[in-house]
Cytochrome P450
Amino acid sequence: MRDSALTTDLHGTYWRLKESAPPVFWTPANGGHWVVTSADAAIKVLRHPDRFSSKFLSIPPNPNQPKMIPESLDPPEHRPYRQLLRPFFEGKAIAPLEPRIREWADRLVDDVSAQGECEFIEALGSRFPVSVFMEMFGFPLEQFDFFRGTVVEYFDVQIDETRRVELSMQILGSLAQLIEARRTEPRDDLVSTLLHIDFEGRKLNQDELISIGFLMFLAGLDTVVNALAFGMRHLAQDDELQARIIEDPGVIPAMVEELMRRYTFISTPRYITQDTEIEGTKVYAGDSVLVPLHMVGWDEKLTDCPAEVRLDRPHCRHAGFGSGIHTCLGIHLARMEMVIFYETWAKKIGRFRLAPDQTLRYRGGSVQALEALQLEWDAT
């Protein structure tokens, strides 16, 4: 797929790939790699880390890329770290955050409600989930613009590898500063907790702390932003769904799942460690395979009429949060944030629409994004 197609019609381009390409195929792009386009093929890759490794999270493989614990680890090394982090992201652990998340949603929506318009990603889509995450992890909120700008540039497929390395060093340096600050002055945040937690009879060392932080930085400052942006883009053009959530906010959790299914935005790479087969196609050790997670939620065998956004599905099957051992640790927090945001928006703004005469542009790459989204509504 050409990047130019992705930048103008991201999900449409992936959909056409699903419709026209075989379940597994080889592309010479990015040095050459395999791509899967069916749910069966995607799930096979994601759920067999013994053959499809996460140790290189880029195509082509970059052995100098900073490690991201636990995302870039395979079994058996992966499990102890995931078990260490999992309790901090379980439903019961994040439940106490709900009042503070609602405060953020109320404040940010109130800031724009009287204006009758906003550029959603700058005013709300980034500031809401990123502020929540920065508080939780321990990043200073006064550095919001620097942190958000850094992660957006890091995921930009147009930058060269030298610049990406520079950005990595900036992130690692910020993490090292934060860790040292919390060693001196612990606070009620995740970094302070990780500094003192017991891990297999010892404390986490500096490299482990920075590696965990690097993953949290990239995931926490970008993924929910993208989910909300794609969701709001759809909702702005779906009057019936807008009316539904205004009249019955109880359907919003189902809507969150359905929008994640329809507008999945991650394509995850895996490194093949042994000659094997994917749905009858022979693949080889040393090759890479790209798994567009979109393909799970778009598979007709799992979802009737997958192009439609519907709230009446008995099961909403998708891989928007990943699948297998690397399913997103922050899945419960992400869902809570999105449900609270849509509830707040429906209550305070109500009906809204896309601003006319705008050209939507998208970011391709492994984590896809909408670059800007201008919205309008009738302010009261």
Notes: The longest strand covers residues 267-272. The radius of gyration is 21 Å.
